Amino acid sequence: MLKMVYKSINLGGVQTLMLRIGKHCRKEGISTVVYCEEINSPQMKDALENEKIKVVEVKNAPAAAFKNVKKDDIFLTFSLYDYIECLVEKRKKSIDNNLFYYVVHPYNTIHVTRLSILNRITENSYKNIIKKSIKEGFLFFMDKPCVQEYENYYDEKSDNAKIIPLPMEIKPINYSEIDKRCENRICDFNILSIARSDFPFKGYLKTLVNSFEKLYIKYPSTRMTIISDGEDVSLLKKWVDKVNAHCDNRIQLIEKVHPSMLEQYYEDASLYVGMGTTLLEACDKGVPSLPIEAYTYELKASGFFNDVDGRVSTMPGEGIDAMSYIEKIMNMTHVEYKELAMECRNTYEKKHDINLTYQYISSKKSNTIIKVPYIIIFENKIRRMIYTLKRLHRENSK
Fold first, then answer.
1. Which of 90, 94, 115, 144 registers the highest number of CB atoms within 10 A of its CB?
2. Of 19, 2, 1, which is closest to residue 11 (Cα–Cα)?
């Protein structure tokens, strides 16, 4: 059995990643359970359960996952603190089952608290845990930016860091769909972006929206579709409304789309602009895709998906104004556009096959126990207490 641990079920990249991994495990004859502490998206819960992935909502997900452990159980986490708590549970139970931490965000190895003195006390301990986890192969990264952020923060070179690009279920390519997209873009060029309204993480949306007016004046057949939800969606709506007032409402903002309904929006897209899982889903459909830099309100890119060797975002300091790439693709010939679509798709197929992830976590063997110092255990107990209080406050405020 594969047991995945993550605090909350939302409409987000980690949750769709768990969905894909669980779906693939089922094909391989392995059952999957997701342990969480909050369900904020009934749609995502339904999507997981529709794929026979059991969702267990409990007060303490790491502790629940380590109850009734069987010999062949594998554990997979996606956040630093879930991983730490699972390490503690693993040592408590004296078991040698494999426990992995998949780093899918550049800041996911960085430990920061509001108490700077506590940071100084615990930072080296976190560094040692992460360093040993990398050495033993239990911690692996999504891409080079994630490794780079770890190295910069801890001042630690990691030549042996394992990188496994975001796993995707590779589907047969539909060539007629690509041909149709090539034809339709001439009179209806649709720029698609799908991202949670979480700023400044997905701050690129602001400049993408604000740049549309100039683009529309130059290319009147252009439109834009943005699918977004999240705490900051009202801010995004203000940006869209402001630009739409001058652009005949050519930007469509859509909220709360069920994951199973996204396919129709990829089919309708001429270009995908964004990052992460949704960018890969666009490549799967043969949509030319432009990875963007995170944590900035600027719109920065360093090339199309195939140009950057299948990375799902642009590294800080590497990109230029992405509008130059957007205009480049809009001026491509039919042959050039189709070649780009196929190059994006081929790079995706080569780099992101889910079998690479499955084979790694299902075949790795190690009896190493990674110890967690008492100061880290104590700190995480305080963290969990604060998290629980905040969650209760949110529930009572509803």
1. 90
2. 19
Q: Where in the chain is the domain with CATH 3.40.50.2000?
A: 175-351
What DSSP letter does each residue of 332-352 carry, written as one string? --HHHHHHHHHHHHHHHHHH-
Region for residue 249 given its phi and psi (left: phi exceeds 0; alpha: psi -120 to 50; beta: otherwise): left
Q: How far is C-alpha 342 from the chain's CA centre? A: 23
Share in percent of the chain as helix, strand, coil (round to 5): 45, 15, 35
- Report whether 79 contacts 6 (CB < 8 A): yes
Alpha carbon 324 to its chain's center: 26
Which residues neighbour 89 within 8 Å (Cβ) at sequence distance 6 or greater? 62, 63, 65, 66
Distance CA 139, CA 118 (A): 24
Nearest partner of 226 among 239, 214, 245, judged by Cα = 239
Rounded CA-CA distance 366/98 in Å is 7
Q: Do the beta carbons of residue 189 and residue 283 sit within 8 Å? A: no
Contact 224, 250 (CB under 8 A): yes
The Cα 18–Cα 21 span in angstroms is: 5
Q: What percent of the chain has pLDDT over 90?
A: 74
Q: 198-247: per-residue pLDDT in tens? A: 999 999 999 999 999 999 999 999 999 999 988 899 999 999 999 999 99
Contact 210, 345 (CB under 8 A): no
| CATH class held by domain 2-168+355-397 | alpha beta
**Residues constituting the chain:** 398
